[in-house]
Fold this protein.
Amino acid sequence: MLEFKNVSFRYDVDEFAMMENLSFSVEDGDFVSIIGASGCGKSTIFRLINGLEKPQKGEILVDGKPISSLKQYSAFMPQKDLLFPWRTIEKNICLPMELAGVPPKEQEARCREVLEQVGLLDYMKKYPKDLSGGMKQRVSFARTLLSGADMLLLDEPFSALDYLTRVEMQEWLLHQWEHYDKTILFITHDVEEAVFLSQKIFVIQDRPFSSMEMVEVPLSYPRDRSDLKRPEIVELKEQLIGKLRRSVSL
Ligand SMILES: Nc1ncnc2c1ncn2[C@@H]1O[C@H](COP(=O)(O)OP(=O)(O)O)[C@@H](O)[C@H]1O
Ligand SMILES: [Mg+2]
């Protein structure tokens, strides 16, 4: 569904390119993680996918069509929840619909539906301050789902959460993914998180990069955290950490 074809990109202010002739593809319904050292260009890939930046060379296609000809093919969820503290959860969720002129009754119905899906219907009239960090990220995810896009771009969505909440949210996210039949691209610098969640992991190792090594995780779904203790998975994690360390020391 998503295809990068020989994409080259450099920020105007930079002397050097960030990626050169990068080609990769992601299949419909995949759960793919992208890992790499901080500053290597992971978030930039998302900015290119959602059209915030344009490649100097190459093409980005979704279902075979250039993204410039498409609307609402992807939805982005950032690390911070970006909820307005003075708006209730309902009003936060409805904001994009408000801006799009959706009738209030329909806004409310869709908000209810999506809050129910993420298990937070009771919090509809509450404010962000009344929710834990994990709950706020679930609201943020609900807002991403509401966009209706088939491809979700999640940029380190759990990295600000404490360890146990993060583990819970990972399991929760897998349930959501299994339920909704979405394609998920997930950025993280946490190797274990990438291994637990994904079918495939793309590793960024060079600067500039012209390819990403693709590593398949030999686990089926549903997954359990005890799977992480299997010898082949422990070995895979070590290999990935090794690749990232080599790239940091470049
Ligand atoms: N909007 C921007 N304009 C100019 N440079 C940017 C911009 N966003 C990021 N960069 C630079 O590009 C590099 C890679 O950024 P980014 O894609 O955010 O990396 P990552 O997400 O892997 O940490 C960083 O060195 C950063 O300073
Ligand atoms: Mg980033």
